[in-house]
Amino acid sequence: MRVLGVDPGLTRCGIGVVEGGHRRGVRCLGVGVVRSPVEDELPRRLLTIGDGVEEWIHEHRPDVVAIERVFSQHNVRSVMGTAQVSGVVALAAARRDIPVAFHTPSSVKAAISGSGRADKRQVTAMVSKVLGLSTPPKPADAADALALALCHLWRAPMTDRLAEAEQRAASLARNHRQRLRRAVRDSSGTGGNQQ
């Protein structure tokens, strides 16, 4: 599976691509940032980010795009820009029928370091170690994007199995309800015919 991880940001949008699979190692195919000039108007900045992300998608042809779920209670202005970038990235993936997955920062940190409270330095160190990178990816946005991609790569099989199990359970429940309705209908029909 090839995963494009995106750490959304209006000034610096981290991008990282990893590839791995069952019983295969994982490797980094690319890492970087897409930047937008602070002096530009918001629509132009979003266009710049969107164009950059589309270039990465075109070049690496990922199977899925993993985006950090926007979460903050403090800086509303920063959250708005990040959320808008997330939307642009999701749109770019949807245009190519590429599935999109969102992961919270704490779930990414837990997947990479074992702790949902790991700091950026710890996440960068673990990403570098797992991917066998000789130098840590910089800036931190790039390392975070690789962490997102790794998180999805590792958790996707479990998430897929859970989704399949939920679908099977829902199907069994539907079938059971239909049998119950038929049984009730048949028993009430039989009882109504008796004199």
Automatic annotation (TrEMBL):
GO biological process: DNA recombination; DNA repair
Pfam families according to UniProt: RuvC (PF02075)
Compartment(s) where it occurs, according to its Swiss-Prot or TrEMBL record: Cytoplasm
Binding site for Mg(2+) 1: D7, D141
Keywords: Cytoplasm, DNA damage, DNA recombination, DNA repair, DNA-binding, Endonuclease, Hydrolase, Magnesium, Metal-binding, Nuclease
Cross-referenced Gene3D superfamilies: Ribonuclease H-like superfamily/Ribonuclease H
Cofactor note: Binds 2 Mg(2+) ion per subunit.
One annotated Gene Ontology cellular component of this protein: Holliday junction resolvase complex
Domain of life: Bacteria
EC number in record: 3.1.21.10
UniProt catalytic activity: Endonucleolytic cleavage at a junction such as a reciprocal single-stranded crossover between two homologous DNA duplexes (Holliday junction)
Binding site for Mg(2+) 2: E68
Keyword Mitochondrion: no
PROSITE patterns: RUVC
Keyword DNA repair attached: yes
Annotated GO MF terms: crossover junction DNA endonuclease activity; DNA binding; magnesium ion binding
UniProt xrefs under InterPro entries: RNaseH-like_sf (IPR012337), RNaseH_sf (IPR036397), X-over_junc_endoDNase_Mg_BS (IPR020563), X-over_junc_endoDNase_RuvC (IPR002176)
Cofactor(s) demanded: Mg(2+)
Enzyme class: hydrolase
Family: Belongs to the RuvC family.
Subunit structure, interactors included: Homodimer which binds Holliday junction (HJ) DNA. The HJ becomes 2-fold symmetrical on binding to RuvC with unstacked arms; it has a different conformation from HJ DNA in complex with RuvA. In the full resolvosome a probable DNA-RuvA(4)-RuvB(12)-RuvC(2) complex forms which resolves the HJ.
Protein name: Crossover junction endodeoxyribonuclease RuvC
